[in-house]
Amino acid sequence: MLGPVTFSEHRFAITGGLLAAAMVGGSVPISGLLVDFPLFTGQSVRYAIGAVLIALWAYGRRARIKLPKLRDVPALVTVVVVGMLGFNAAMIGAQRFAEPGLVAAVLGGSPLVLATVAPLLTRRRPAVRTLLGAGVVVSGVVVLSGGGSWTGPGLVLAVVTMLSEAGFTLFAVGVVGRLGGLSVALWCHVIAAVGGAVLAGVFEPVRGPSGRETAALLTVAVLTVVAFVLWYQSVAVLGADRAGVLIGMMPAAGFAVSVVVGAQSFRWSGLAGVVMVGVGCVIGLLAPRRRAEVVAVAPKQNDVGVLRVDTDG
């Protein structure tokens, strides 16, 4: 049995969650460089690179990687299908029929979904402050993205993208508690790499990436690995509902990176949206304290245990 979660570990969980969300959001403009590259081939390559990086990291740190048991396989496969391959496919597909602003605005609804559904899965009522914070985050994302228009299935695909993002967290809560964030990250990357390769072999022509596409694949692979591990460790300590409000940093980071690289111009409404997202995160993370059992990752032992701690929610 591990000791109580300390203030520094709690602060690290918040910081890690923010960094993870910022990395994913900031990688969106980079992923745009892969729009002409075969979808499943690109995903297979990026997740294969990620799996190697995680394995090397675990070996270098002598971190313990747990083998999944039979009961863990459905959750791992669901995370891959819904939150990894499905999420990326829906996001790219949505942008063929809808403006990026609309996709970002709908994606910003993920925190509200997590703040509502995650507590219900553990048979407790959603925390009012967490819901309020998630609502402010969603509003900030709408202001940040400026809404946007769509045609055909654009709106439906945007909603699927949002639900896939929420599912990435919700479907992983149990298996992260049993295996730990690092182990889940590795096995999900392996499954995604193999699954993407199979789908690519069936549906896509074979071609290698250009120099620019190679750089983009390497960049998103590294960002995904770091974000993946940080995010699940954050969820383990904060809970899915409270960590969910941090997802609002994804479009905020995407906006900042897009302005820096010249992909879009600066807008004061965008800055206002970023501020609203920040305020929403603060509100959501200051929910009243309660006594609860929280599955947390031990930073030094790289193991998992069930802790009795004071946490918000």
Principal-axis shape equals globular
Q: Which bin fits the share of residues in helices?
A: 55-70%
Question: Which strands sit side by side, in order, in the main sheet?
Answer: 1-2
The number of distinct β-strands equals 2
Query: Structural class from helices and strands?
Result: mainly alpha
Average pLDDT works out at 82
Spatial extent as radius of gyration: 19 Å
Strand content: 5-15%
Largest sheet: 2 strands, antiparallel
What's the order of the H and E elements?
Answer: HHHHHHHHHHHHHEE
Low-confidence residue ranges? 289-313
Gap between N and C termini: 23 Å
Number of helices: 13
The domain tally reads 1
Polypeptide structure, described:
Helix content is 70%, strand content 6%. The protein has one domain (7-312). The protein has 313 residues and is mainly α. Strands 1-2 form a two-stranded antiparallel ribbon. It has helices at residues 7-31, 39-61, 73-94, 100-107, 110-121, 128-145, 154-170, 173-179, 181-203, 211-238, 240-244, 249-260, 268-285; strands at residues 289-298, 303-312.
